[in-house]
Amino acid sequence: MESSWRRGLGFRLFHNHLTVNLVSAVFDRDSEVWLRLLRSLRRDVLAEAAREDVSLIMTSVFNGTSENAEAWQTMLEPVATEGGSVLFVQLTCERDELFRRVVQESRRVLDKLVDAERMQVMLDRFNLFESAPFGPHLHLDVTHLAPSHAASAIIEHYNIARV
Predict the structure, then answer these.
(1) Beta-carbon count within 10 A of 49 CB
(2) Which CATH number does the domain housing residue 152 bear?
């Protein structure tokens, strides 16, 4: 999928787990320093991309808390400062499908969550299906939607031109 987005639309993929893996290699996950550096790194990359006119697709999770919303607004602020824009897409799926997907071996390659019990803890702790309060966004239920169809829906919704 990355290559087709990159060739056909001019976007580069800034994968959430690249930053998570980098900071986790040095600091304990979810520690204060880990969270501060993670957010700083993301903000710096987004700022430089906006400054250099590099269009990105970035993946992440919104956990439904006001603190997380404020952190994302801070991380995304340089994009607006540089005259860029952010188009939000929220992908969700039915709970049973989420648990089926989370344990798939293909997730392990990117050091993604592959533990159903940990997923349950996260679902109990956070409202992961909460709509992010960042303004208008596209919400897609991808339970029965192929990735290519989800991509097409995003392209159509935001009227993204192919290059």
Answers:
(1) 19
(2) 3.40.50.300
